[in-house]
Amino acid sequence: MPALQRTVLLVDDNVSLRQGLALVLEDEGIETLQAGRGDEAIQLAHAAPCNLLVLDLNLPDMTGVKVYREITRAMADLACIFMTAEAGDDLVEDALRLNPLRLLRKPFEVNLFRDLVRRAIA
Fold this sequence. Notes:
With 122 residues, the chain is α/β, with parallel strands linked by helices. The protein contains five helices and five strands; from the N terminus they run βαβαβαβαβα.
């Protein structure tokens, strides 16, 4: 991967949200990889290097926290932005203990999201 390549792994089981966020980032010249489940995200992250994870906390097969922990075993310094619409307090606390760049509550402003990602991979 070229040194200047910027890639974000978007993980959310809401296909329309995931694809919409991908379009926003691709308009900024940021490559995206997409997954709808935790196991897919882990496989993608190990197969294709990325600069940033954007993870939903509630996935069909596991939590975003578990996905992040699994991926960062191999890529310890990988930054993450968590997203959630309805995560319980315990899960939110677990996520915040991992020191994400941000935990976004859905729905969130697209401009805020774009600016966070830009700064994270600058």
